[in-house]
Amino acid sequence: MTTKSTDNIIEVQHFKISFAQKTVIKDLSFSVKRGEIFGLLGSNGSGKTTTIRTLLGLYREDKGKLLINGKKFEPGDKVRIGYLPEERGLYKKESVFDVMMYFARLKDLENPKEWIMNYLKRVGLEEFAKTKVNKLSQGMQQKVQLGITVMNNPELLILDEPTKGFDPVNRRLLMEIIEEQHQKGCTIILITHYMDEVERLCDDILLLKDGVARAQGPVKEVRAKFDNKSLDQIFVDIYGEQEESHE
Amino acid sequence: MNKTLEVIRFEVMRNLKKPSFWIAAILIPIGFALYIGFAALVGYNAGESMEAGTNTTELKLGVYDEAKYLSGTKFINADEKEQEVAIIESKDAGVNAVKAKELDVFYYISKDFATDQKVEIYTKPEAASITDDYSMPIRSLLSMTAAANVNPIDLAVVTGAVNFNTTAFSAEDDHVIDQDEILKAIIGPVIALVCFYILLVVLGNRLTTAMVEEKENRISELLLTSIKPINLIVGKIISLMIVGIVQLIVLIVPVLVLYKVGLANNILPADLAISFDLASIAMYMLLLIMSYFLFTAMSVIVGVISPTAKDANSYSGVMIIMVIMPIFFVNAFMPNGIGTLTYVLSYFPPSAPIALMLRGLFGNLPTWEFWLGLADITIFGLLASKLATHIFCRNAIEFTPKINFKKLFGSPRKQWKK
User: Which of A25, B74, B81, B325 has the largest CB neighbor count within 10 A?
Assistant: First the structure.
């Protein structure tokens, strides 16, 4: 399964996956360059999360290759991955500190206590370190989840709708953290419905529809192919086709 | 291995930090002890009062013995004092005296007593109660008369007062088996049975819900990029075993201390000073630990199959019934009840732990069968752990409330086979 080392941290080739009778991804190929921010876009149910889950070994592909650093990924590999899933939660009856400490140990973090306290201070949760998770607001819980995701200084950060449910202040804080990780050399895959975030942050994008890539490449090139329309408009145009054809 | 240890540390600590664990760990055994003590006390008192009947000390009693059977009219009442029953001239006079409240109780022995063995009792209490029993005085009078008329040997035979002494020889080497030896042999199974039952009651629910938590709280995906499923499942099983062992220590240590202190200070009767057969106790402790391992692994399967904690509780009910099934067929484990059902329950893995403990208790579990049963339980426990990991791989990030068995038992992901 090992391929020769390239500048791409992720290689996906002719990926196909079905659930029961439904083919979610028909034939998908793309690559993600080391150090870039990659936007994985598409409407709900277009297969973005399925692609990520398969990449991380949580689903098994029917066909194709999905490689991270030239290898099929499995939990416990040396690759430092930070994954903030769409379906995310925490141990509700444990304290913020205990939950973060558990994940820090699982991720082999050095000086976990120091890192956790610094992070909690930064996101304004220092005084909630001993508070049980179920006593925190949704936004506070999301900050804890983000902390768990980035604590191992990941070389690949996968964020599935990270700003969902955040107020503008916390959204800005989250963006700062993402940009900070990017500046450290981290590759980021961003799944989001906010096209302004994509235009501002992403180097390359892939727009999924009906299990295939409908638009793919650097943001500028994709926009150029669609008469320099905004990404928002391109998204509407592509998904509008489907609705029109259904009508 | 390191990550498994982290799971164990996290799971053990968070269980031991929960007040609910300590409340259950301490209160349930205390509740059991109180229940057994209360039931024994009530049973003892009820037995005593049934034997004594209604106290007749303050009552005026009369008898008309038409059969001329009684040899005396004095008896020892509940206050251990001699009390006399007045002789009445006729049945009608006695009945009328009761109606007129001149007598509290009137006994009539008809002239056909030799054939019908019947005594009529008449009374007129202020408030009749089903517990009122005025037969004790006439019983005493009849017994004293009978004892005076019968040969003492015949009397002992008829009343079951004959003593029987049994000498049993060991099937293995013909040595004489004494009571102490029988007691020694049953201590191991009794301790194992009581401890296993308490673990089922205290921790049964906690075991199944422990595995649902990750799924219900949507933690699985966060976890599974940091740890292999096998490490997570093994960590969970070992931590739940440790929690169970802590529970047993909380239960056994105070009992042992109280037993030793009670004997040393003569609070407990000296005949409770039993010499323990440590080898037998060690064998049954091993059976207890492997039984608990099997139960934990089965609970983890239930947990990983279930979409929610509520579903897990329903499924664990079915599993617990399978485990305690031998208790419903206890006759099948007694020496004269051994048959096909005994062996089915002894080797059907979920019911094997209690079946083997019951057979040990009733003294019909040969040593070779003990080890065979233990191997059966251990192997099935390991297979159950493996199956739990397999199912967890298939089901960890399925958040729908429906269970798809075809999908659960399908082939595992290649990368998680290791």
Answer: A25
Average pLDDT over residues A172-185: 87
Please state, in angstroms and rounded to a whole number, the distance separating the CA atoms of residues B314 and B212.
Answer: 13
DSSP secondary structure letters along B391-415: HHHHHTT--SSS--HHHHTSPPPGG
In this structure, are residues A35 and A8 in contact, taking their beta carbons and an 8 Å threshold? no
Calculate how close chain A gets to B245, using CA atoms only, in Å.
23
DSSP state of A132: B
Q: Is B415–A105 a contact, with Cβ atoms under 8 angstroms apart?
A: no
- Put simply, whether B219 touches A (Cβ < 8 Å) is yes
Radius of gyration of chain A (CA): 19
Of the two residues A235 and B7, the one the predictor is more confident about is B7
- Residue A191, token pair as written in the block: 């799944």
The whole-angstrom distance between B323's CA and the closest CA on chain A is 30
ipTM of the complex: 0.81
Domain boundaries, chain B: 61-159, 178-416
Superfamily of domain A1-80+192-247: P-loop containing nucleotide triphosphate hydrolases (3.40.50.300)
Nearest Cα of chain B lies from the Cα of A125 at a distance, in angstroms, of 21
The reply to whether B40 touches chain A by the CB within 8 Å rule is no
Closest in A58, A88, A102 to B218, CB measured: A88
Report the alpha-carbon distance of residue B164 to residue B182 in Å, rounded. 18
3-state secondary structure of B293: helix
Instruction: Tell me the pTM.
Output: 0.71
Q: Which residues of B touch A103 (CB under 8 A)?
A: 222, 226
Please give the order of strands across the beta sheet that includes A22-33. A22-33, A8-19, A63-68
Listed by start position, the domains of chain A span: 1-80+192-247
CATH number of this structure's domain B61-159: 3.40.190
Nearest by CB to residue A88, choosing from B3, B9, B222, is B222
At CB < 8 Å, which residues of chain A contact B?
53, 56-60, 72-76, 81-85, 87-94, 98, 102-103, 105-108, 145, 148-149
pLDDT tens per residue, range B143-187? 888 888 888 888 888 877 888 877 777 666 777 767 777 778 888
Q: Distance (Å) from the C-alpha of residue B7 to the closest C-alpha of chain A? A: 8
Q: Is B412 exposed, middle or buried (0-12, 13-18, 19+ CB in 10 A)?
A: middle
Q: Is A206 helix (H, G, I), strand (E, B) or coil?
A: strand
> Could you give the percent of chain B with pLDDT greater than 70?
86
